[in-house]
Specification:
The complex is a heterodimer. By secondary structure, chain A is of the alpha/beta class. Chain A has 7 helices and 10 strands. In chain A, the strands form 2 sheets. Chain A has a 6-stranded mixed beta sheet, with helices on both faces. In chain A, strands 2-1-4-5 form a 4-stranded antiparallel beta sheet. Chain A starts with a strand and ends with a strand. Chains A and B meet through helix 2, strand 6 and helix 3 of A and helix 1 and helix 4 of B.
Chain lengths: 216, 227
């Protein structure tokens, strides 16, 4: 079976500084992969490269069967990235935001409603402006947008940050459900206990390179 | 999704944000009205004001447009939504056209208010014979300004010091619209005895400007926001 992500000796540069220095990584469909490593090791850069946001300077990178050197735009439409920012509009309600991001991939009203319910946002919160939400509630809204977008590859950078216990449980359940239904999940996290319990495999990112670490 | 469907989605989203936040009605329109009043204080001569009213309307439009453009891209960059749109694979041409459409709608409201202000404050006289020319001028100039505003707003969105960079980049580029729209509006008003027929050649310039920036922006917007 063709891997969802295949990187071979990938080098990526940001602002003249090499953020990935010969990274090798293979991720199979349905995996939940935890990327761990110190700050500045290249975890976020690895996720952004897989999302088609960071160009490949050298080496070979294939995501969802597309060569990143050629098909970055095609890859982008099939992955979902949740970085440090949430990508939300503060003057719109929670429901408006999820409906907007769902609409970018043609999601139906039922699918949008399902995404809101999945993240526990289908009650009173749905009509609240995002600007009035707590950091954790905004994170949940961003995750609901990702669910509505039906991404094949989920790229999450510190997804548990700012979430309360209930939000973390909902997130973990959502990620397990997504992986069970054929999506692939890559999580960069410093919360090793929490994310380690969720992951099916762990790799270590150090100095822009990926070291295999095995099962959690 | 097709470029046009994306454009409609983005435009609807931008206009909904404006409807909820009321920045145009609560901040931009009062600012534009204030500029018109200050022009009146500065010139303080009814004859001069009547004569220069078309130019002042378009100057006030351009100053106010800077606020609209800043706002249109602030909502995209505040929480990384522009990045998220790129990751979502949303066609950049659709983003450009959608944001231009929403900006044009807001500019149309702004220009209508400024035109009324010119009639009330400067005693500018609208002539029935110039009505078609006036409407065509506003439509062509608004389209061109919306395309330029969106293009340069996108260019400045990721830059440091974007608040000061945007006017420096944009105002020289919109000079042809200022000149063309002012001359055509003077002809529509009959300022200094100008006839409507004198305004139509300027419409050609405005349309050419809008077509060039519309096509250029649709093609180049992806590369601009990628940087």
């Amino acid at each position: 079976m063709e891997p969802v992500v295949h990187l071979a000796d990938v080098v990526a540069v940001l602002g003249g500084f090499p953020v990935l220095a010969g990274a090798d990584l293979t991720v199979q469909r349905g995996e939940i992969l935890l990327l761990r490593g110190p700050n500045g090791a290249g975890k976020t850069s690895l996720l952004r490269l897989c999302a088609g946001l960071l160009p490949v300077e050298r080496g070979s990178a294939t995501v969802l069967g597309c060569d990143l050197a050629v098909d970055r735009t095609v890859v982008r439409s099939r992955v979902g990235l949740l970085g440090h920012a949430n990508g939300l509009y503060a003057d719109l309600t929670v429901a408006d935001n999820v409906a907007f991001w769902g609409a970018t991939v043609g999601a139906t009203k039922d699918e949008v409603a399902g995404s809101l319910a999945r993240m526990g946002l289908d009650g009173r919160l749905a009509d609240v402006h995002v600007g009035r939400l707590s950091a954790g509630q905004r994170r949940r809204t961003a995750l609901a947008c990702l669910v509505a977008r039906r991404a094949e590859l989920w790229l999450l950078d510190e997804p548990h940050a700012g979430l309360d216990a209930a939000g973390r449980d909902e997130l973990d359940a959502t990620l397990r459900e997504a992986a069970a239904s054929g999506a692939t999940v890559m999580v960069a996290s410093h919360e090793l206990e929490r994310a380690g319990a969720l992951a099916t495999r762990v790799v270590e990112v150090v100095g822009g390179q990926v070291r295999q670490a095995g099962t959690p | 999704m097709s470029t046009w469907r994306i454009a409609r989605l983005i435009a609807a989203k931008d206009l909904r944000i404006e409807w909820r936040s009321r920045v145009v009605t609560n901040q931009v329109l009062p600012f534009a009205a204030l500029v018109m009043v200050l022009f009146a204080f500065a010139l303080d001569n009814d004859n001069v004001l009547t004569r220069v009213a078309p130019g002042l309307v378009w100057l006030a439009t351009m100053f106010s447009m800077l606020v609209l453009v800043q706002r249109a891209f602030a909502v995209e960059t505040a929480d990384g939504a522009l990045d998220a749109l790129q990751v979502a694979g949303v066609r950049p041409g659709g983003i450009f056209l959608g944001k231009s459409l929403a900006l044009a709608a807001q500019l149309a409201v702004l220009e209508t208010v400024l035109l009324i202000a010119a009639v009330v404050l400067y005693q500018a006289e609208l002539q029935a014979s110039g009505a078609v020319l006036l409407v065509t001028t506003f439509a062509a100039a608004t389209t061109g300004l919306a395309f330029v505003g969106t293009l340069y707003g996108g260019l400045a969105a990721g830059a440091k010091g974007r608040e000061t960079l945007l006017p420096l980049l944009m105002l020289p580029v919109v000079a042809p619209v200022l000149i063309g729209a002012t001359r055509a509006t003077e002809a529509a008003f009959g300022t200094n005895g100008a006839s409507s027929s004198e305004g139509w050649p300027w419409i050609g310039l405005l349309i050419l400007f809008a077509v060039l920036f519309g096509a250029g922006g649709t093609l180049a917007f992806g590369s601009l926001i990628d940087e």
